[in-house]
Amino acid sequence: MELILVNIIDGLVTGLLLFMLSAGLTLIFSMMGVLNFAHASFYMLGAYFAYQISIALGFWMGLLIAPLIVGVLGAGVERYGLRRVHQYGHVPELIFTFGLALLIEELVQFIWGKNQMPYSVPEILNFTAFSIAGNSIPAYKIFMIFTSVAIFIGLLYILTKTRVGMIIQAALSYPRTVEALGHNVPLIFMGVFGVGTALAGVAGVIAGPVLGTFPGMAFVLGSIVFVTIVIGGLGSLWGALVASLLIGWITTFAKSYNIQMSDILNGIGISTPENLSENVFRDLWTVTSPQIADILPYILMVLILIFRPAGLFGKRHS
Amino acid sequence: MTDENLTTDPARPAQRMRAGSLSLTFTPWIVGGILLVLMPFIFTSNSALTIMNQMWITVIFALAYNMLLGQGGMLSFGHAVYAGVGGFACMHIMNASDFFSSLPLPVLPVFGGLFGMGLALIVGSFSTRNAGTVFAMISLGVGELIAACSVIIVAFFGGEEGISGDRTYAMPFFGNEFLQQIDVYYLTSFWVLLSAALMYLWSRTPVGRMANAVRDNPERAEFLGYSARWVRFYSFVASGFFAGVAGGLFAINYEILTEENLNTTSSGVILLVTFLGGVGFFFGPIIGAVAFTLLQTVLSLQTELWAFYAGTLFVATVMFFPGGLAGLMMMHVPAFRLGKANHLIVPYIKTLIPGFIGILGLCALVEMTFHFRHAATGDNEMTLFWTTFDSHTILPWIIAIAVTAIGLGIARATAPALKEAWNEANTAGGAA
Predict the structure, then answer these.
(1) Which residues from chain A sit within 8 angstroms of residue B88, using beta carbons?
(2) Is the pLDDT score of B14 beyond 70?
(3) Could you confirm whether the keyword Transmembrane helix appears in this record (chain B) (predicted)?
(4) Interface predicted TM-score (ipTM) over 0.90
(5) Domain residues of chain B, as ranges?
(6) Is A308 an interface residue toward B (CB < 8 Å)?
(7) Could you tell me if residue A170 is inside a domain?
């Protein structure tokens, strides 16, 4: 029971972190119809900038300034890169963001080298908040949960209750009409892209100390983020939330409970073959759940795409 | 540029080449075949043979990839798995000694192709429902899934260390056991010519033609009575076959396959190669594969930063020349037809050479910065463009900055003249 609670908290941290990335990504997608492949790269940039700033000014200034820089960079990418490529169509846009992801990774290696940066949890949060049956929960995890929830509520408030949010929502569905009403839609697009990448930057700042700040961090998380928004349904904010939490919990639980395939197969009445090392399916028999925890999201995605192509909360589209 | 290239308009000269009859296109194949035979006599060293083998394998793979991207409008982020699975299957055949000893080696890539095709049949059955973003996402997911499986399913993928085999156990092919690199070279050359010809012929079949139609306007194709989904499916399966052939050749050439042949990085590389070469034309990926392999082997010997340059080149291509190298070449066809191409030579020299020198200067700055930041302390000497100097003194920096500024400055100043000459060369009439 206690272990379940610990895992729920761990899964929540992972899920909310994923959500911070997928929220920005899905907002950008529903607005411009372009999937930003470089989204996780902005997350990485957030972590690296925050590390660099934290050396000089401390963690909290990093949390404040790094997402701003990332957001400005993102807006610049939209203004001078994507908008130019947009005229060629969606596929070149996707290829452009893919190339950008490659380039940012190389750039990070160029500036900071290939090794992991010693970016660590600030002193003030480096203590045990409470413990559940001997499993200590660090305060930083609680901080991560509260930060992401606060950002989510803020985003929801801005999008649904303020005038700016109304215009953004209107621009999502009827960009032409909104333009005709005198709003600068390209500017809104640029702003949303900037805010989306800034959110990824925030995620990077707070995840960097825990998950490690290294050049491969974008790659590790990047494809999972895509899987998340595909499972949730492209363009659906709620879908992104549900899918993020789902993936967070599934991977956490799969990692902490050592479920063996042979037990399951024995349980449903198939007995283990005699000389296992000679058997063609020997790998199937020896698979354990921690082994496949990282590929469970992909399996889930393939299943979703086969049986419900629009995703969990997505609208059906042609 | 891409938009113009991707629509089939027979009235445009550049398009006429693509939509041309078969008779027009025999010459390049014969020239290509002769070149393939003669290359080993020009470049005799073993390393050159290795590079050429790798080049031809990349050519097949890139052409197969372009069947999807260029001809079918489907962007795949996980195409390496089809080549990889084909290669792994060939490796297992190589290790099945009874069967392998009754099989001539040149036939082996067919099996790679069949396995690649088999996987494409399964994946294509659900992934080709949509083109565009959804297809790209599925391909990424499936690619990651299979790449991740390679560490788990040790029986087939061999885990971390991969699996290896020995090609010489095959049935001797007219007495040849493929012991030497040159034998493998001719085997690869045979396959590159055959596969390229088959893929070209495929693009001329009704299915290949319909793939173009579905790419440009799926709705209209549906109204004409063609199922867009099936057309995509056929392209996908055919592409999987040729990717598998490339994988089989990889297995023969390197005799080892690992997880690296499956992962997203290799899928990304083939996208890069194809796009760099140009997706709008059949021969684009060939140029891309040759250029990229050369770039990779030459640059990676010279600098640690070659991936950075390749990435920059890629992003620049997407932003400024979406037609790729092939698109750039075909842009000049109208000028040649008008007989005004010679008007372009002088402006080109005036702009491109300073521009090139400026870019080299920029590269020097990048290299020096890299050395300044990352070299071991005390190691101040670096060698660049055949000169050795101290990267911690001010003089080399001044020279590099000056070269960059002057080179790019001249290029910038002469660009309007080039543009004018370009417009002039592409306008009919006037003083020729």
Answers:
(1) none
(2) no
(3) yes
(4) no
(5) 2-331, 335-425
(6) no
(7) yes
Length of chain B equals: 432
Whole-model pTM: value is 0.84
C-beta atoms of A111 and B155 within 8 A = no
Domain membership of residue A42 (yes or no) is: yes
Residue pair A88/B2 in contact (Cβ under 8 Å)? The answer is yes
Does domain B2-331 fall under CATH 3.90.1200? My reply is no
Domain count, chain A: 1
pLDDT score, position A313: 79
Distance CA B15, CA B6 (A): 9
pLDDT tens by residue, A77-111: 988 888 888 888 778 888 899 889 989 998 898 88
- The CA distance from B219 to the nearest CA of chain A, in Å, is 10
Position A278 in a domain: no
Interval A140-196: pLDDT, tens: 888 888 988 998 888 888 888 898 888 888 887 788 898 899 888 888 889 989 999
- Please judge whether B134 and A309 are an interchain contact, meaning their C-beta atoms are less than 8 angstroms apart: yes
A95 within some domain: yes
Residues spanned by the domain of A219 = 2-257+288-307
Q: Do residues A19 and A156 lie in contact, with contact meaning Cβ atoms separated by under 8 Å? A: no
Cα angle A38, A42, A45 (rounded to 5 degrees) comes to 135
